[in-house]
């Protein structure tokens, strides 16, 4: 499983990148608003993220257009920001049509706000490079977000979607709307390719109380050695 950071916060991205386990970044309009982002600085901000993570890490930048022609125009402009930009497009009819056009032009698309197997299969057929099923928001309406991710992984891997990728890899499933380290565990066991996680969850993924306890006892015993 690869890990993406789900944020538009440059300091968080810099810190996570320094840990050596960051494979990409996803953003959305809410995350950009959360950091006080301004409309006319949006493309520059996405460029700054691309520069931090480097050319091998995909950075999802979301289109807020609602018609296929506008999404395609938006997507083409976003793709000009950097070679590692992935255009994030909501799962809807206009989004599928735009994905079909952009994918044919070699522009990778992350189809977002995906909540069902049929949506994921349509996204893959339309040419999406990544598909993002949401866990937390599904749980929020008393559905089982993890079960849905598992179903989507199984359904997508029942078929060959390697034509969607430049290097002949299968389309990748990004587990999104991740709220806990346990979500990451369960998604890894189900074979999700990527988990995109908020920085708070990434920090929790490093931690374990037994690690803290073990470290504490090692430090105390080493003090005895030093004072012996
Ligand atoms: C990722 O691509 C999504 O934008 C994100 O994971 C949504 O997470 P949320 O449901 O916690 O806002």
UniProtKB/TrEMBL annotation:
SUPFAM superfamilies: Aldolase (SSF51569). The lineage of its organism: Bacteria, Bacillati, Actinomycetota, Coriobacteriia, Coriobacteriales. CDD domains: Transaldolase_FSA. This is Fructose-6-phosphate aldolase. Keywords: Cytoplasm, Schiff base. The keyword Chaperone does not apply. The keyword NAD does not apply. GO terms for molecular function: aldehyde-lyase activity. InterPro entries: Aldolase_TIM, TAL/FSA, Transaldolase_3B/F6P_aldolase, TSA/FSA_arc/bac. GO terms for biological process: carbohydrate metabolic process. The gene is fsa. It is found in: Cytoplasm.
């Amino acid at each position: 499983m690869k890990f993406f950071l789900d944020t538009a916060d440059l300091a968080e991205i810099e810190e996570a990148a320094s840990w050596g386990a960051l494979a990409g970044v996803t953003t959305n309009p809410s995350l950009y608003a959360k950091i006080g982002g301004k409309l006319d600085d949006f493309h520059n901000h996405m460029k700054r993220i691309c520069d931090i993570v480097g050319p091998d890490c995909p950075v999802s930048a979301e289109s807020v257009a609602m018609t296929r022609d506008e999404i395609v125009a938006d997507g083409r402009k976003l793709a000009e920001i950097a070679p590692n930009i992935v255009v994030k497009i909501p799962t809807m009819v206009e989004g599928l049509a735009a994905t079909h056009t952009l994918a044919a032009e070699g522009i990778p698309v992350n189809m977002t706000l995906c909540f069902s197997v049929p949506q994921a299969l349509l996204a893959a057929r339309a040419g999406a490079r990544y598909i993002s099923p949401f866990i937390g928001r599904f749980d929020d309406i008393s559905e089982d977000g993890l079960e849905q991710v598992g179903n989507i992984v199984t359904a997508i891997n029942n078929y060959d979607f390697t034509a969607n990728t430049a290097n002949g890899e299968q389309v990748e499933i990004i587990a999104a709307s991740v709220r806990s380290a346990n979500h990451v565990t369960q998604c890894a066991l189900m074979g999700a390719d990527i988990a995109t996680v908020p920085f708070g969850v990434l920090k929790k993924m490093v931690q374990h109380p037994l690690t803290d306890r073990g470290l504490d006892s090692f430090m105390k015993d080493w003090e005895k050695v030093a004072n012996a």
